[in-house]
Amino acid sequence: MALKSIELFAGAGGLAMGVSLAGFKSHGVVEWDRWACDTVRQNSERGHPLVADWPVFEGDVRQWIDAFCTTEAARGIDLVAGGPPCQPFSMGGKHRANQDERDMFPATVDVIRRLQPRAFIVENVKGLTRATFHNYFQYIQLQLEFPELRRRPDDSWVDHHARLQAFKTSVRRGNTGLSYHLVTTLVNAANYGVPQKRERVFMVGFRKDLNVRWSFPRETHALDALLHDQYVTGEYWDRHAVARKHRPEPASTQATLIARLRGLGLPPTRHPWMTVRDALTGLPEPRDGDTRHLNHRLQPGARSYPGHTGSPLDLPAKTLKAGDHGVPGGENMLVRHDGSVRYFSIRESARLQTFPDGYELHGSWSEAMRQLGNAVPVRLGQIVASSVASHLLEHDLRQVQMPSLVTA
C-alpha cells in the first residue's frame, strides 16, 4: 500500500511532485490561487502521470480541513507537506511575520494537530531565519513540536510562546501527547543537484511515538567540483563543445580555490554544481511564437541594472523570484558571455526548478514566472520526501519483524 500524503499551499506543484516521485499517493492538494490550481488541473487533464489523480481543492486550507476531517481519507495520513506563504518573511516582502494576514503557519499547525500525520515537511524562505524574526521562528518550531498545546483565546503569540517554552523544559513532560521530533535545516538547492542557488528552510518532523531518528540528507554537489570540472580537467567545456576561445576566465575570487584543486591532484568527492548551461541543454534559443516546446517563447524587454544583473551561463542560476523584484524587475535573466541579457523563458525557468519538460505552466509569462518563483524545486522535494519515506518504511518493517523476533 502506498504511503498517504497531503500537500498544503501546493502552488504549481513543485514540492507535491517531489513527494509523488518519492512514492507517496496524494489524498489532498490544497491551493487558494486559481492560476496555480489551473496549472495542476490542466496537467492532470492532459494526463501528466505525476498529477493525473491528484484531488485538488481550490480554496482556504482552513475551510478544507473542516470538510476533509469528516472523510475516510483523513485517517492514517503518513505525511503532511507544504510551504506556507512566504511573503511575511521574504527578503523582498514587508517583513510583517505574525502581523501579516498571509501568515499560514497557524493553519499548518492546526492541520497537523487534527490529522496527526506520522511525519511532516514544512518549507519556507531563508528570510525566516533573519534576526528580526528570531523569536517568532522559535515559536513556529515549538508549535510544530507540540501541536496539541493550543493557543488560548486570550493569549498573545508571546504568551503562547512562553507556555510552549515552559512545557518543553518541564521535567514532567514525559507524556506529551501528540508531539514530534523536529529537525530544522537551512539548505542550498544547488548542493543537491538543482541548477539554481536557492536557499530555503526545511522543518521536518516525525511523530515521537515512532521513535525515528532522522537527519537531513547529505549534500551531493559542490562548487569546488564544478571548478575542478571546468578549470582543472576542462571536461565541462568538452562536454558542452565549448571551444577554448569561448571559455570564460574564472572569477578572481575563485583563483585560489582552483590553484588548490590543481595542487591536490585528486578529484572532489562530490558532483559538480549543475549550471544554467547544463539545465538548458537541448533547448534552442527561445523565439517569439515558438510552439515546438511548451512555454518556450521569447519574452522581450530584459535589461540589467544595479542589483538585478541576471544569472551567468556557467554557474547555477540565481534564485528565481516571484513578484515585482523578480519578474518586471529584471532578475530572472540569462547573462551571456558578451554581457547581453535576455529573460529566461518559462520552460527554461521550469528546468531551473527541475520541473519535468512535459509539465505546462498556465497563464501569462509573468503569472507563470510567479508560480515558478514561489515553487520548491521538484528534485529537492523528491530528495527530502524520499528520505522521509525510507524512514517510515523502515519503521513499518521493524514493526512487522518484531513479533517474529520475540517468538524466536
Automatic annotation (TrEMBL):
One Pfam family of this chain: DNA_methylase
Keywords: Methyltransferase, Restriction system, S-adenosyl-L-methionine, Transferase
GO biological process: one example: methylation
InterPro entries on file: C5-Methyltransferase, C5_DNA_meth_AS, C5_MeTfrase, C5_meth_CS, SAM-dependent_MTases_sf
Molecular function terms from GO: DNA (cytosine-5-)-methyltransferase activity
Enzyme Commission number(s) from the entry: 2.1.1.37
Substrates-to-products reaction catalysed: a 2'-deoxycytidine in DNA + S-adenosyl-L-methionine = a 5-methyl-2'-deoxycytidine in DNA + S-adenosyl-L-homocysteine + H(+)
Active-site residues, as the UniProt record annotates them: C86
Organism domain of life: Bacteria
Family classification: Belongs to the class I-like SAM-binding methyltransferase superfamily. C5-methyltransferase family.
Protein name: DNA (cytosine-5-)-methyltransferase
